[in-house]
Design goal:
By secondary structure, the chain is of the alpha/beta class. The chain has 3 domains: 67 residues, Nucleic acid-binding proteins (OB fold (Dihydrolipoamide Acetyltransferase, E2P), Beta Barrel), CATH 2.40.50; 150 residues, P-loop containing nucleotide triphosphate hydrolases (Rossmann fold, 3-Layer(aba) Sandwich), CATH 3.40.50.300; 61 residues, Probable gtpase engc, domain 3 (Ribonucleotide Reductase Protein R1, domain 1, Orthogonal Bundle), CATH 1.10.40. The chain is built from 7 helices and 13 strands. Strand 4 and strand 5 form a beta hairpin. It starts with 15 loop residues before the first strand and ends with a helix. It binds guanosine-5'-triphosphate (GTP), magnesium ion and zinc ion. The site of guanosine-5'-triphosphate (GTP) has 24 residues, from helix 5. The site of magnesium ion has 5 residues, from helix 5.
Protein backbone atom coordinates (compact mmCIF):
# COMPACT_ATOMS: atom_id res chain seq x y z
CA UNK A 1 0.00 0.00 0.00
CA UNK A 2 1.32 3.38 -0.99
CA UNK A 3 0.98 6.43 1.25
CA UNK A 4 1.29 9.96 -0.08
CA UNK A 5 3.07 8.88 -3.27
CA UNK A 6 6.44 8.39 -1.52
CA UNK A 7 6.99 4.85 -2.74
CA UNK A 8 9.62 4.37 -5.42
CA UNK A 9 8.40 3.22 -8.78
CA UNK A 10 10.27 2.18 -11.90
CA UNK A 11 9.83 5.67 -13.43
CA UNK A 12 10.74 7.55 -10.24
CA UNK A 13 13.42 5.80 -8.30
CA UNK A 14 13.53 7.23 -4.76
CA UNK A 15 17.29 7.65 -4.99
CA UNK A 16 19.86 7.35 -7.72
CA UNK A 17 23.54 7.26 -7.15
CA UNK A 18 26.24 8.51 -9.51
CA UNK A 19 29.80 9.78 -9.58
CA UNK A 20 31.06 13.26 -10.36
CA UNK A 21 33.85 15.80 -10.08
CA UNK A 22 33.67 18.60 -7.49
CA UNK A 23 34.28 21.88 -9.31
CA UNK A 24 33.31 24.39 -6.62
CA UNK A 25 32.69 24.35 -2.91
CA UNK A 26 30.82 26.88 -0.85
CA UNK A 27 30.15 26.39 2.87
CA UNK A 28 28.64 22.95 2.71
CA UNK A 29 27.25 23.15 -0.80
CA UNK A 30 29.29 21.68 -3.59
CA UNK A 31 28.97 21.88 -7.34
CA UNK A 32 29.45 18.46 -8.83
CA UNK A 33 29.91 17.85 -12.54
CA UNK A 34 28.67 14.51 -13.77
CA UNK A 35 28.77 14.07 -17.52
CA UNK A 36 27.35 17.39 -18.63
CA UNK A 37 25.07 17.82 -15.61
CA UNK A 38 26.03 20.29 -12.91
CA UNK A 39 24.46 19.36 -9.58
CA UNK A 40 24.48 21.13 -6.24
CA UNK A 41 25.16 18.60 -3.51
CA UNK A 42 25.51 18.98 0.23
CA UNK A 43 27.61 17.06 2.68
CA UNK A 44 25.68 14.83 5.06
CA UNK A 45 25.85 15.69 8.77
CA UNK A 46 27.70 12.52 9.67
CA UNK A 47 30.75 13.78 7.71
CA UNK A 48 31.05 16.77 9.99
CA UNK A 49 31.17 14.77 13.18
CA UNK A 50 33.94 12.40 12.15
CA UNK A 51 36.19 12.24 15.19
CA UNK A 52 39.49 11.44 13.51
CA UNK A 53 39.70 14.25 11.07
CA UNK A 54 42.83 16.33 10.77
CA UNK A 55 41.68 18.62 8.01
CA UNK A 56 39.20 21.46 8.20
CA UNK A 57 37.80 20.94 4.75
CA UNK A 58 36.19 17.68 3.82
CA UNK A 59 35.13 17.95 0.22
CA UNK A 60 37.48 19.90 -2.04
CA UNK A 61 37.72 20.81 -5.70
CA UNK A 62 39.09 17.94 -7.73
CA UNK A 63 37.44 15.36 -5.49
CA UNK A 64 35.68 12.49 -7.17
CA UNK A 65 32.53 11.87 -5.21
CA UNK A 66 29.61 9.49 -5.17
CA UNK A 67 26.41 11.47 -5.00
CA UNK A 68 22.87 10.34 -4.23
CA UNK A 69 20.09 12.48 -5.60
CA UNK A 70 17.28 12.84 -3.13
CA UNK A 71 14.86 14.67 -5.43
CA UNK A 72 15.08 16.97 -8.45
CA UNK A 73 16.92 19.75 -6.60
CA UNK A 74 18.71 18.05 -3.77
CA UNK A 75 21.65 15.70 -3.74
CA UNK A 76 23.87 14.40 -0.98
CA UNK A 77 27.51 13.40 -1.18
CA UNK A 78 27.74 9.83 0.02
CA UNK A 79 31.39 9.16 -0.43
CA UNK A 80 34.65 10.87 -1.36
CA UNK A 81 36.56 8.46 -3.55
CA UNK A 82 40.23 7.88 -2.66
CA UNK A 83 42.48 10.82 -3.56
CA UNK A 84 45.51 10.44 -5.77
CA UNK A 85 47.14 13.51 -4.24
CA UNK A 86 46.22 16.69 -2.39
CA UNK A 87 47.44 20.25 -2.01
CA UNK A 88 47.55 21.29 1.60
CA UNK A 89 48.25 24.37 3.65
CA UNK A 90 48.27 24.97 7.38
CA UNK A 91 44.88 26.30 8.45
CA UNK A 92 44.64 29.88 9.60
CA UNK A 93 45.28 30.80 13.21
CA UNK A 94 48.04 28.27 13.81
CA UNK A 95 45.55 25.48 14.47
CA UNK A 96 46.68 21.88 14.16
CA UNK A 97 44.26 21.34 11.31
CA UNK A 98 45.29 21.49 7.71
CA UNK A 99 43.37 23.02 4.85
CA UNK A 100 43.18 20.85 1.79
CA UNK A 101 42.91 23.17 -1.21
CA UNK A 102 42.48 20.72 -4.08
CA UNK A 103 42.80 17.03 -4.84
CA UNK A 104 43.69 14.77 -7.77
CA UNK A 105 45.77 17.26 -9.73
CA UNK A 106 47.68 16.39 -12.89
CA UNK A 107 50.04 19.32 -12.40
CA UNK A 108 50.79 22.28 -10.15
CA UNK A 109 51.78 25.61 -11.63
CA UNK A 110 53.50 27.90 -9.19
CA UNK A 111 53.10 31.42 -10.53
CA UNK A 112 55.54 34.10 -9.43
CA UNK A 113 56.10 37.57 -10.75
CA UNK A 114 59.57 38.67 -11.80
CA UNK A 115 58.81 41.98 -10.10
CA UNK A 116 55.88 43.68 -8.31
CA UNK A 117 55.98 41.76 -6.04
CA UNK A 118 59.71 41.00 -6.23
CA UNK A 119 60.77 37.55 -7.35
CA UNK A 120 61.40 35.42 -4.28
CA UNK A 121 63.45 32.28 -4.97
CA UNK A 122 62.95 30.79 -1.50
CA UNK A 123 59.20 31.00 -1.95
CA UNK A 124 59.25 29.38 -5.38
CA UNK A 125 61.49 26.60 -4.03
CA UNK A 126 58.91 25.79 -1.37
CA UNK A 127 56.23 25.37 -4.03
CA UNK A 128 58.55 23.08 -5.97
CA UNK A 129 59.07 20.94 -2.88
CA UNK A 130 55.32 20.47 -2.57
CA UNK A 131 55.23 19.05 -6.07
CA UNK A 132 58.25 16.83 -5.44
CA UNK A 133 56.88 15.54 -2.11
CA UNK A 134 53.42 14.80 -3.53
CA UNK A 135 54.87 13.52 -6.82
CA UNK A 136 52.77 15.99 -8.78
CA UNK A 137 54.49 17.37 -11.91
CA UNK A 138 55.30 21.06 -11.64
CA UNK A 139 55.40 23.73 -14.36
CA UNK A 140 56.86 27.08 -13.29
CA UNK A 141 55.24 30.28 -14.54
CA UNK A 142 57.25 33.51 -14.28
CA UNK A 143 54.95 36.43 -14.99
CA UNK A 144 55.24 40.20 -15.59
CA UNK A 145 58.11 39.70 -18.00
CA UNK A 146 57.14 43.03 -19.60
CA UNK A 147 58.38 44.82 -16.47
CA UNK A 148 61.93 43.43 -16.34
CA UNK A 149 64.93 43.29 -18.71
CA UNK A 150 65.03 40.09 -20.81
CA UNK A 151 68.37 39.18 -19.34
CA UNK A 152 67.00 39.12 -15.79
CA UNK A 153 64.03 36.96 -16.86
CA UNK A 154 66.25 34.50 -18.68
CA UNK A 155 68.71 34.28 -15.81
CA UNK A 156 65.98 33.19 -13.40
CA UNK A 157 64.32 30.89 -15.92
CA UNK A 158 67.76 29.33 -16.51
CA UNK A 159 68.27 28.38 -12.85
CA UNK A 160 65.12 26.24 -12.92
CA UNK A 161 65.36 25.10 -16.53
CA UNK A 162 68.82 23.60 -15.88
CA UNK A 163 67.38 21.53 -13.03
CA UNK A 164 64.82 20.15 -15.47
CA UNK A 165 61.69 22.09 -14.50
CA UNK A 166 59.59 23.37 -17.39
CA UNK A 167 59.45 27.18 -17.17
CA UNK A 168 56.99 29.44 -18.97
CA UNK A 169 57.87 33.14 -19.12
CA UNK A 170 54.70 35.17 -19.46
CA UNK A 171 53.28 38.63 -19.55
CA UNK A 172 49.56 38.88 -18.99
CA UNK A 173 49.96 42.46 -20.15
CA UNK A 174 51.43 41.97 -23.64
CA UNK A 175 50.46 38.30 -24.04
CA UNK A 176 53.94 36.74 -24.17
CA UNK A 177 53.92 33.06 -23.25
CA UNK A 178 50.14 32.88 -23.00
CA UNK A 179 49.78 30.46 -25.94
CA UNK A 180 52.29 28.14 -24.36
CA UNK A 181 50.49 28.36 -21.04
CA UNK A 182 47.18 27.51 -22.73
CA UNK A 183 48.72 24.46 -24.44
CA UNK A 184 50.26 23.27 -21.19
CA UNK A 185 46.90 23.50 -19.42
CA UNK A 186 44.97 21.77 -22.16
CA UNK A 187 43.40 18.42 -21.27
CA UNK A 188 44.74 18.37 -17.72
CA UNK A 189 43.55 19.28 -14.23
CA UNK A 190 45.93 21.97 -13.02
CA UNK A 191 46.15 24.41 -10.14
CA UNK A 192 47.71 27.84 -10.37
CA UNK A 193 49.25 28.60 -6.99
CA UNK A 194 51.38 31.45 -5.73
CA UNK A 195 51.41 34.64 -3.71
CA UNK A 196 48.76 37.31 -4.05
CA UNK A 197 49.23 39.90 -6.79
CA UNK A 198 51.52 37.90 -9.08
CA UNK A 199 48.87 37.81 -11.82
CA UNK A 200 47.28 34.36 -11.66
CA UNK A 201 43.77 35.56 -12.45
CA UNK A 202 44.95 38.07 -15.06
CA UNK A 203 46.82 35.27 -16.84
CA UNK A 204 43.79 33.00 -16.88
CA UNK A 205 41.65 35.79 -18.29
CA UNK A 206 44.20 35.95 -21.13
CA UNK A 207 44.26 32.18 -21.58
CA UNK A 208 40.50 32.06 -21.91
CA UNK A 209 38.96 35.38 -22.91
CA UNK A 210 35.48 35.78 -21.49
CA UNK A 211 36.34 34.30 -18.11
CA UNK A 212 36.26 37.67 -16.39
CA UNK A 213 37.94 36.56 -13.19
CA UNK A 214 38.36 39.43 -10.77
CA UNK A 215 41.83 40.88 -10.67
CA UNK A 216 43.33 43.37 -8.26
CA UNK A 217 45.80 46.20 -8.00
CA UNK A 218 49.14 45.65 -6.38
CA UNK A 219 49.47 48.30 -3.70
CA UNK A 220 52.22 50.74 -4.62
CA UNK A 221 53.32 51.14 -1.03
CA UNK A 222 54.04 47.50 -0.27
CA UNK A 223 54.27 45.88 -3.71
CA UNK A 224 51.98 43.17 -2.31
CA UNK A 225 48.69 41.94 -3.68
CA UNK A 226 45.51 42.11 -1.66
CA UNK A 227 43.87 38.72 -2.11
CA UNK A 228 41.48 39.47 -4.91
CA UNK A 229 40.60 35.83 -5.48
CA UNK A 230 38.96 34.31 -2.41
CA UNK A 231 37.69 30.87 -3.41
CA UNK A 232 39.24 28.07 -5.37
CA UNK A 233 37.20 26.82 -8.31
CA UNK A 234 37.87 24.40 -11.16
CA UNK A 235 37.30 26.25 -14.40
CA UNK A 236 36.49 24.16 -17.48
CA UNK A 237 38.86 24.98 -20.35
CA UNK A 238 37.74 25.24 -23.96
CA UNK A 239 40.63 23.01 -24.98
CA UNK A 240 39.60 20.36 -22.44
CA UNK A 241 40.65 19.95 -18.84
CA UNK A 242 40.21 22.25 -15.86
CA UNK A 243 42.27 24.85 -14.11
CA UNK A 244 41.97 26.05 -10.54
CA UNK A 245 42.60 29.70 -9.90
CA UNK A 246 43.44 29.77 -6.20
CA UNK A 247 43.59 32.63 -3.69
CA UNK A 248 47.08 33.96 -3.03
CA UNK A 249 49.18 31.61 -0.91
CA UNK A 250 52.58 32.43 0.47
CA UNK A 251 53.31 28.78 0.84
CA UNK A 252 51.81 25.36 1.11
CA UNK A 253 52.52 22.87 3.86
CA UNK A 254 55.19 20.28 3.24
CA UNK A 255 53.73 17.15 4.76
CA UNK A 256 55.29 13.90 5.83
CA UNK A 257 58.88 14.76 4.94
CA UNK A 258 61.62 13.94 7.47
CA UNK A 259 64.66 16.26 7.41
CA UNK A 260 66.85 13.37 6.15
CA UNK A 261 64.54 12.90 3.16
CA UNK A 262 64.68 16.51 2.03
CA UNK A 263 67.83 16.03 -0.09
CA UNK A 264 65.86 13.84 -2.52
CA UNK A 265 63.35 16.61 -3.16
CA UNK A 266 66.06 18.75 -4.78
CA UNK A 267 66.51 16.95 -8.12
CA UNK A 268 69.88 18.59 -8.86
CA UNK A 269 71.32 17.26 -5.57
CA UNK A 270 70.70 13.64 -6.52
CA UNK A 271 73.96 13.02 -8.46
CA UNK A 272 75.93 14.01 -5.33
CA UNK A 273 74.00 12.08 -2.71
CA UNK A 274 75.98 9.28 -1.09
CA UNK A 275 79.25 10.94 -2.06
CA UNK A 276 79.84 13.00 1.06
CA UNK A 277 82.64 12.11 3.50
CA UNK A 278 80.11 11.24 6.20
CA UNK A 279 77.25 8.82 5.56
CA UNK A 280 74.74 10.83 7.55
CA UNK A 281 75.82 14.17 6.09
CA UNK A 282 73.04 16.74 6.32
CA UNK A 283 74.82 18.96 3.73
CA UNK A 284 75.08 21.94 6.03
CA UNK A 285 78.36 22.44 7.86
CA UNK A 286 80.00 19.04 7.47
CA UNK A 287 83.53 18.55 6.12
CA UNK A 288 83.80 16.83 2.75
CA UNK A 289 80.19 17.53 1.73
CA UNK A 290 79.74 16.73 -1.97
CA UNK A 291 76.60 18.88 -2.18
CA UNK A 292 78.35 21.95 -0.74
CA UNK A 293 81.26 21.33 -3.11
CA UNK A 294 78.88 21.12 -6.08
CA UNK A 295 77.46 24.47 -5.01
CA UNK A 296 80.94 26.00 -4.80
CA UNK A 297 81.87 24.69 -8.25
CA UNK A 298 78.71 26.23 -9.70
CA UNK A 299 76.82 22.99 -10.41
CA UNK A 300 74.18 23.79 -7.77
CA UNK A 301 72.72 27.29 -7.57
CA UNK A 302 73.49 29.09 -4.28
CA UNK A 303 69.86 30.18 -3.85
CA UNK A 304 68.71 26.56 -4.10
CA UNK A 305 71.32 25.47 -1.58
CA UNK A 306 70.19 28.27 0.74
CA UNK A 307 66.58 27.08 0.37
CA UNK A 308 67.63 23.55 1.24
CA UNK A 309 69.27 24.70 4.43
CA UNK A 310 66.37 26.88 5.45
CA UNK A 311 63.75 24.20 4.86
CA UNK A 312 65.97 21.61 6.58
CA UNK A 313 66.01 23.74 9.72
CA UNK A 314 62.22 24.08 9.59
CA UNK A 315 61.67 20.33 9.19
CA UNK A 316 64.23 19.58 11.89
CA UNK A 317 62.41 21.91 14.26
CA UNK A 318 59.12 20.14 13.50
CA UNK A 319 60.66 16.70 13.97
CA UNK A 320 62.51 17.57 17.21
CA UNK A 321 60.67 20.50 18.77
CA UNK A 322 62.34 20.15 22.21
CA UNK A 323 66.01 19.81 21.20
N1 LIG B 1 52.67 44.75 -15.95
C1 LIG B 1 52.02 43.62 -15.68
N2 LIG B 1 51.04 43.61 -14.76
C2 LIG B 1 50.39 42.45 -14.52
C3 LIG B 1 50.71 41.26 -15.22
N3 LIG B 1 49.92 40.28 -14.74
C4 LIG B 1 49.12 40.82 -13.80
N4 LIG B 1 49.39 42.13 -13.66
C5 LIG B 1 48.74 43.05 -12.69
O1 LIG B 1 49.00 42.58 -11.38
C6 LIG B 1 47.87 42.85 -10.52
C7 LIG B 1 47.45 41.61 -9.77
O2 LIG B 1 46.93 40.66 -10.67
P1 LIG B 1 45.92 39.48 -10.24
O3 LIG B 1 45.69 38.68 -11.47
O4 LIG B 1 44.75 39.99 -9.51
O5 LIG B 1 46.83 38.67 -9.21
P2 LIG B 1 46.48 37.27 -8.50
O6 LIG B 1 47.75 36.47 -8.53
O7 LIG B 1 45.29 36.64 -9.09
O8 LIG B 1 46.20 37.73 -6.99
P3 LIG B 1 45.23 37.07 -5.87
O9 LIG B 1 43.93 36.75 -6.50
O10 LIG B 1 45.15 38.08 -4.79
O11 LIG B 1 45.96 35.81 -5.41
C8 LIG B 1 46.81 43.45 -11.43
O12 LIG B 1 46.86 44.86 -11.30
C9 LIG B 1 47.24 43.05 -12.83
O13 LIG B 1 46.83 43.95 -13.82
C10 LIG B 1 51.76 41.32 -16.19
O14 LIG B 1 52.14 40.33 -16.83
N5 LIG B 1 52.39 42.52 -16.37
MG1 LIG C 1 43.47 36.08 -8.33
ZN1 LIG D 1 76.78 16.47 2.29
Amino acid sequence: MSRGGKTATAEHPAATSFEGLVVRTESGFHRVLSGDRLIVARTPKKFNSRGDRTTTTLVVIGDHVRVRSVDEETAVIEEILPRRNELVRGAAGGSRFLDVIAANLDQIMPVHSLTEPDFNAARLDRFLLIGEAAEIPVVIVLNKEDLVPDQFAEEIAGIYGRIGYPVILTSAKDGRGVDRLRETLSGKISALVGPSGVGKSTLLNRVQPGLQLRTGEVSDATGKGRHTTTTAELIPLHGGGFVADTPGLRELTIRDVAPEELEWLFPEFRPYLGRCKFNNCSHREEIGCAVAQAMESGAIDPSRYASYRRVYEDLDELAHPYD
